[in-house]
Design brief:
single chain, alpha/beta, FAD/NAD(P)-binding domain, D-Amino Acid Oxidase, Chain A, domain 2, 5-stranded mixed β-sheet, about 30% strand
Amino acid sequence: MRISGFDLAVVGAGIVGLAHALAAAKMGKRVVVIDRDPRANGASIRNFGFVTVTGQQRGEHWSLARRTRDIWESTAREVGIPIEQRGLIVTVRRAESVTVAEAFLNTEMGEGCQWLNRNRFHQLYPEIAAHDAVGALFSPHELRVESRTALPKLALWLAEAHGVTFLTETPVHSVVPPRLETSRGPVEAQAAIVCPGDDFHTLFPERIAAYRPRRCRLSMLRLASPGFRMPAPVMSDLSLARYAGYAELLEAETLRRRLAAEQPAHLANGVHLIAVQSADGSLVVGDSHHYDDLPQPFAPAEAETCILDEFARATGLSPPPVIERWVGTYGVADGRNYVIDAPSENVRIAIVTSGTGASTGFGIAEKTIADMFGRKVGGAA
């Protein structure tokens, strides 16, 4: 069977692939998305669905997150994807964390954010204010969707509203536009973008290997409803030492030293806290970070213990029962938040290498599509 007539083939139907399909479709391009699985089943749905702006690395990545948040906002409205939560509350229990938060607020990244002192924090959000909380950093910028349902809805809408063709359960064997070889036979497209997630070996392995990628394994939990609606997603002191927008500030070094002395097991397991709430009241809580070329599928119990411990410390709540557990993996590359590689004029490889696909993917896709189609690509203007 011969499938032809496309301006762009996108290989990979995770959030990065769908973002590129959307950006191209908005330019009026004829797009086909090809994926080896029946539906997205990797990092794109094994996360928080938390579109995070505050704390992303200063500069380009922070700007990409702001743009991605705006695209999520408008797209969710068109698609009918519910925004489950808005904003961010970073609970703070240490004086060193206050210093980091204040330094952050004095940068351009602090625009629209505010510091809530102890009294104000406990007054506004008593449900999540631990007894020893000294305040909180509040951001209005974030939004949260339920990844498991948002991605299928987004894919269906791309097909129905923008005419994007989806070929699922279709492995791609080679990409040499205007021809891609697949398990269904050749697919003809003038250009291609390969969005492989953490599959570094199937397509263009030598190109991807040049960036020395690894995989990060994370542990995630779903907890039963705490019996109230959380006012916003929650992070904590550990997040201030992990997210680059905070952690790269000079003031963060003192905080890191204190955390290393007080919570060494948490740091050893790469644990920091994100807690978000779903429509049914349950909480998605995580996460941990372990790095390897091929992380083992065995998640250490200590990581889960540390996650639940930080949840209790940050909120003052006894963690509700765990009702679901899962492990995710995503690609990482030292010193890079994402990789855009060009094996040829008509081909790009797009990999988010910082675990921020949901938060920056739409912005990255806009840049990549503009670059590809801003000049002659295989005869397409």
